[in-house]
Design goal:
Pfam families: adh_short. The chain has 243 residues and is an alpha/beta fold. It contains seven helices and seven strands. It has one domain: Rossmann fold (3-Layer(aba) Sandwich), CATH 3.40.50. Strand 1, helix 1 and strand 2 form a beta-alpha-beta unit. Bound molecules: NADP nicotinamide-adenine-dinucleotide phosphate (NAP). The site of NADP nicotinamide-adenine-dinucleotide phosphate has 31 residues, from helix 1.
Length: 243
């Protein structure tokens, strides 16, 4: 399995898991299109990818809540490279916690980013992935697998991601498209920045998973050329302590 001569598109690539995933895919030989809103971060990442791995890159500043921008993101990737082998739906935000205190604005932010954004990108990518018999990889979460006493709306978006991904898997598997979900527990990234404290700040190095580890799991799923990696759970080892 290799990603040599492949083209990958990663959403939420300006930090955390997405940024490390772009590196992991480029290390395996893929040319990589990187999408998020912060263009300067993406420009710097693209320079790093080209210097470190000798691959081609494309920067596509995109707000995944905007249908037109997501359509353009996929179209520009295919126009530039001539194909699409891998889409990593990674973008995601979590804000707030208790349902009775959650504003409608924050509810919509999570639904539009974590659910609508994945739908728009998946819909646009499927025809191109069918051509290459490529792979769709979704970033889910432990929060989308088990009930927990924290931010039910964020959790529900991740249950949605898993439900959507596996249903799409049922639909496009016979077209030769692989569909995978990768579920991390806590990862040291900028996640949580909307609420004032990032997971990078909250957790010490070594306390929870690092984004590079999740990126390797995503790259493993993305490099499959025959089988589907149905789901990978990548948990911190003490997750069930006191469960
Ligand atoms: N960290 C964890 O503990 C953890 C655990 C389980 C699952 N996850 C999931 O992992 C995925 C990646 O998160 P992360 O931990 O790497 O967090 P992160 O460092 O905060 O990265 C989130 C990325 O999403 C982008 N983004 C946010 N809103 C966007 C929008 N409207 N349009 C386009 N891009 C947008 C951000 O870039 P811009 O601001 O530049 O747009 C950033 O690149 C998410 O789906 C998250 O739910 C994280």
């Amino acid at each position: 399995m290799t990603l040599q001569d492949s083209v990958a598109l990663v959403t939420g690539a300006s930090s955390g898991i997405g940024e490390e995933t772009a590196h992991a895919l480029a290390r395996e030989g893929a040319d990589v299109a990187v999408a998020a809103r912060r263009r300067e971060r993406l420009d710097a990442l693209a320079d790093d990818l080209e210097a470190a791995h000798g691959v081609e890159t494309l920067v596509v500043p995109t707000d995944v809540r905007e249908e037109d921008q997501v359509e353009a993101m996929v179209a520009e990737t295919v126009e530039t490279f001539g194909r699409l082998d891998v889409l990593v739906n990674n973008v995601g935000v979590g804000v707030g916690s208790d349902v009775e205190e959650l504003s409608t604005e924050d509810y919509r932010l999570m639904m539009e980013t974590n659910a609508d954004g994945y739908f728009f990108a998946t819909r646009a990518a499927i025809p191109h992935l069918r051509e290459t018999e490529g792979n769709l990889v979704f970033v889910g979460s432990f929060a989308g697998q088990y009930p927990r006493p924290f931010n039910p709306v964020y959790a529900a978006t991740k249950w949605w991601v898993r439900g959507f991904a596996h249903s799409v898997e049922g639909q496009v598997g016979s077209d030769g498209i692989g569909v995978s979900v990768v579920n991390p527990t806590e990862v040291r990234t900028e996640f949580g920045s909307e609420s004032g404290e990032t997971f990078e700040e909250r957790f010490e190095p070594g306390e929870v998973t690092e984004p590079e580890e999740v990126a390797e799991a995503i790259a493993f799923a993305a490099a499959q050329d025959r089988s589907t990696v149905h789901e990978i759970d990548l948990y911190r080892r003490d997750k069930f302590d006191g469960w």
